[in-house]
Amino acid sequence: MNSGRLPYGRQDINQDDVDAVRRVLESDLITQGPVVVQFENALAQYCGSDFAIAVNSATSALHIACMALGVGQGDTVWTVPNTFVASANCARYCLADVDFVDIDPKTYTMCPDALASKLEQAKTTGTALPSVVIVVHFAGQACDMRVIAQLAERFNFKLIEDASHAVGARYENKPVGNCQYSDITVFSFHPVKIVTSGEGGMATTNNKALAEKMRLHRSHGVFRPEPGSGRVDDEPWIYEQSSLGYNYRMTDIHAALGLSQLQRLDEFVERRHQLADRYVSKLDHLPFVLPYQSANSYSALHLYPVLVPASEQQASVRRDLFDYMQSQDIGVNVHYIPVHTQPYYQQLGFRQGDFPASEHYYQRTISLPLFSRMTDAEQDRVVNCLEVFAHSLGVRFAA
């Protein structure tokens, strides 16, 4: 990019990545072939999971995860409002009802206390308990999975980790995606994520039956019987459709890029931590609330959301900051508009005020640029603009 505009996120592509894709383009197989399997095996090994299933997006991975867990009409799935809409939409694709659990105001992830309270209330009143809860590892930081898993066992629901932000993250010093505390974990490889395959996603699990179901669902519900199985008279061209699936397959082209990128995952996360540490040292004198890091979690730092000072004018302050940074060619962003406030979910009966912690966070948050190729000089440019803006406020807010 020669314009001087600084984005909030950017992919890091090197010659090894280009060469990996070129090799696939020059091979006989460019759709779903051996490189997809290599990518799956590499991520499973990195995470410490038994199985990994590659698909064309994290949204597709969330959908087939719900399908594999048997989510359907009459079921209820809970997630958080502070996420991209896909974390909730995947349940709606399965015709299930959706509800939300508010976030912890420090971590911005699902609050275990709020989840426990909502579960107890549902049990007491006889309202629907969730069949699946989808937790979201926001901005790269894992939820408190041990506590949430204990609730899953107590209230008999399945757990999906939406780790779209968290490849390379750790929880209790183990890689996110090992599925110790969940049934399925989902990753994203969109270009602004930690590593990219262009577009793509992956689901990990330790359950062989779930892995087989997800592989089936990603490819039309179609499979080829093993030779000698006696199925359909063993004609070599035979394939069978056993369920209604989708075309969610990843190509070898995308997998080659993802596999190459995966070799630098730890390097990418380490650089993000260096930049985050610089933000802490350079912004601590300004009236912004910086991201909290849990002691039991090592964040992948997909995002760096800061909060403007709390005040009656916080929404307008955030908008002024957004406009000012954009005018300086610094591409800040906002993550996320609470899902329950979207028109589609308002039509389902949700209202402003339903999840106050998520709404309060949204009114104050703005994501600063953070990506592995960001230079110290580029980051200093962001800091300088924040200093100018903070001083222009004219007053010191209580953060």
Could you give a quick summary of the protein structure above?
The chain has 13 helices and 14 strands. It has helices at 15-25, 34-47, 58-68, 86-93, 112-125, 145-155, 208-217, 252-262, 265-283, 314-327, 343-347, 356-364, 376-392; strands spanning 51-55, 76-79, 97-100, 132-136, 158-162, 170-171, 174-175, 184-188, 201-205, 222-223, 240-241, 297-298, 304-307, 365-368.
List the helices and strands and how they pair.
Blueprint: H1 15-25, H2 34-47, E1 51-55, H3 58-68, E2 76-79, H4 86-93, E3 97-100, H5 112-125, E4 132-136, H6 145-155, E5 158-162, E6 170-171, E7 174-175, E8 184-188, E9 201-205, H7 208-217, E10 222-223, E11 240-241, H8 252-262, H9 265-283, E12 297-298, E13 304-307, H10 314-327, H11 343-347, H12 356-364, E14 365-368, H13 376-392
Parallel strand pairs: 2-3, 2-4, 4-5, 5-8
Antiparallel strand pairs: 1-9, 6-7, 6-12, 8-9, 10-11, 13-14
Helix pairs in contact: 1-8, 2-8, 3-4, 3-7, 5-6, 9-13
